[in-house]
């Protein structure tokens, strides 16, 4: 009898996550995905096709504006963005983010940026500062189109910080 109750509880939790809780998940911190860059969604994994999204960088004084965008205004609901050096270590700090995004702690405060809420968006711009970092850096994102459709390893061009 206990197994049936546990099984029912697990099934109810899965059902809520897939059907009822999908939008609620979009407001939670994805900091647990800092290393894997995988959302905690119940799905078959990332898309293998080319992402309909991109990342571009605009220098401004001693910082950079990084924009995650949809090609041809393609909408997305969520994202996780990080800057990494040639060794795959997080570099620099995110200091400002356009709503509906938020700066989170991945290894350190300002180590990543994620979505806040699951409302559709076609782009979001964040400010990144290298601070003491010098060298090559590349911005990488996981971008979520819908609960079960997402792309990982969406990359910017490599940026050289002098």
Question: Can you tell me about this structure?
Answer:
With 162 residues, this protein is mostly beta strands. The protein has helices at 2-20, 22-25, and strands at 53-60, 63-70, 78-85, 93-97, 101-106, 108-115, 123-129, 135-146, 149-155, 159-161. It has a single domain, classed as Immunoglobulin-like (Sandwich), CATH 2.60.40. The chain is built from 2 helices and 10 strands. The strands form 2 sheets. Strands 3, 5, 6, 8, 9 and 10 form a 6-stranded antiparallel sheet that branches. The model is unreliable at 1-27 (pLDDT under 50).
Average pLDDT confidence is: 83
Instruction: Indicate how many domains the architecture comprises.
Output: 1
Strand count: 10
Rg calculated over all Cα atoms? 17 Å
Low-confidence stretches: 1-27
């Amino acid at each position: 009898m206990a197994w049936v109750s546990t099984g029912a509880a697990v099934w109810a939790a899965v059902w809520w996550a897939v059907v009822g809780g999908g939008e609620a998940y979009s407001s939670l911190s994805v900091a647990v995905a800092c290393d894997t860059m995988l959302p905690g969604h119940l799905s078959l994994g990332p898309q293998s096709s080319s992402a309909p999204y991109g990342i571009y960088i605009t220098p401004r004084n001693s910082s950079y504006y990084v924009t995650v965008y949809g090609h041809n205004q393609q909408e997305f609901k969520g994202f996780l963005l990080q800057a990494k050096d040639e060794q795959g270590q997080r570099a620099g700090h995110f200091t400002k983010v356009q709503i509906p995004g938020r700066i989170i702690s991945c290894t350190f405060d300002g180590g990543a940026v994620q979505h806040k809420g699951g409302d559709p968006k076609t782009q979001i711009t964040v400010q990144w500062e290298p601070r003491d970092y010098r060298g090559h850096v590349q911005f990488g994102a996981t971008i979520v189109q819908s609960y079960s459709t997402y792309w990982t390893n969406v990359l910017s061009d490599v940026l050289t910080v002098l």
